[in-house]
Amino acid sequence: MCLGGGVAGEAIAVGLHDSGLTLAVVERELVGGECPYWGCVPSKTLLRSGETLSEADRARLLAASRVEWTVDFPKVSKRVLWMARNLDDSRPAAAMEATGAKLGRGEGKLTDLRTVEVRGEQLIARRAVVIANGSTAAIPPIPGLDTVEFWTNRQAAIPSELPASLAILGGGAIGLEMGQAFARLGSKVTVIEAGPTFLGLEEPEAGAALRPHLEADGITLTIGDLCVAVEKQSIGPLRPASSRRGSAVVVHLKSGAVVSADRLLVATGRRPNVEAWRATGIAQTERGWLKVDPATLEARAGIFGAGDVTGLGGFTHLAYYHGQVVARRLRGMDARADHTAVPRVTFTDPEIASVGLSEAFARGRGIDVVVARTDPAETARGYIHDFHGGALKLVGDRKRGVLIGATLVTPRAGEILGELVLAIKLGTPLKTLADVIHPFPAFNRVLGASLEELAAKVA
Fold first, then answer.
1. Which of 257, 299, 320, 408 could make an S-S bridge to 303, C-beta 3.0–4.6 Å?
2. C-alpha distance across the termini of the chain, in Å
3. Nearest to 53, CA basis, from 264, 207, 218
4. Number of Cβ atoms within 10 Å of the Cβ of 75
């Protein structure tokens, strides 16, 4: 039995097809989970719309004497919603049932370690229960926040309106992606990050390289200033009709600064959906995630966790991988999850892609670290593309002579990353990586000299 019909649940259904095992999947919302409806797919579609406008502007420098365009936001909104399947999961639900899985609709609750109750019906698992019910937006306890109609990723990813101004709490991947998308479409965007840096989970070079690009899009970045209160903004009769929606906000910061906006997006992280299973006493991590063995994905005998709910990484590709591993284990295979090289991509322009350990984390583990840095903009492809201000950072283990971490800030960074993911997963020697031929003048050619530099440092 699987509690949650998101990406992990879909992978389990596919993995158990024709296995002889029966599977019941309980889903309270839409089959496919957060990603196709309120996450990856619509948000990247929105980003793509803004990116095309930016490219049109760049044509003035590279190819045209005059380019004119007007944002048609209803067109943008319609396409984004279409990419989000118009919030209709009938096709993925049918695909899941075609594997032989039984789909149960409704709010499922684990009443004991083998029983899920949904809509008054009790479903009893004979072999195992998989908890794969994901996460939701974490809302901080800020005074006054409950008095305004704020957005989370769900409203921002499939918007029906283009706010004249948008304040964003949180400088992580969601906040920056949505901030850049709305800024390029015409909103005045302010990103408010309480921590000392934005993109705090990435190498510091990533944020430093991205910042000028965000500011060039007109985004105001407020860093290291905590939001202490939120209140409704009084809307006078002289305010433009387009912004008189009754939800304008004032954000008060610890420094005394005030940010006013027509909309507020809260992008301060995620929390596990614990309500469906916490009462059973299954162990949780210090941050509340379902505690599982990272290799077997077992929380205890006969209880598996998969995807976001485990806290091992909030990525669609990781959730699908977890589902595959769980399905293999349920089929009797000794499959084990390997989290050594989980790729991460923030789809801003330029993209930020990373894998493995950061330099600071590696040093904290006592690893004798070697580092190579360069700027992908200072390459033939960088000049061809008219790209300015990127970053590449490679982290190696001197003793083992292998790559252990990588971060790229460049166009198409997510596409370049695959070779580095494989290198870290397999522990490929740096001297072998340095001998790889990269096509000229592709963006990934920038890897060659940096890998040679690392290889020389461990020789």
1. 299
2. 52
3. 218
4. 10
pLDDT in tens, the chain (459 residues): 999 999 999 999 999 999 999 999 999 999 999 999 999 999 999 999 999 999 999 999 999 999 999 999 999 999 999 999 999 999 999 999 999 999 999 999 999 999 999 999 999 999 999 999 999 999 999 999 999 999 999 999 999 999 999 999 999 999 999 999 999 999 999 999 999 999 999 999 999 999 999 999 999 999 999 999 999 987 554 444 444 444 599 999 999 999 999 999 999 999 999 999 999 999 999 999 999 999 999 999 999 999 999 999 999 999 999 999 999 999 999 999 999 999 999 999 999 999 999 999 999 999 999 999 999 999 999 999 999 999 999 999 999 999 999 999 999 999 999 999 999 999 999 999 999 999 999 999 999 999 999 999 997
The reported pTM is 0.94
Cα–Cα distances in angstroms (integers) from residue 73 to residues 50, 225, 229, 262, in the given order? 11, 32, 31, 17
Which neighbouring-strand residues pair with 261? 249
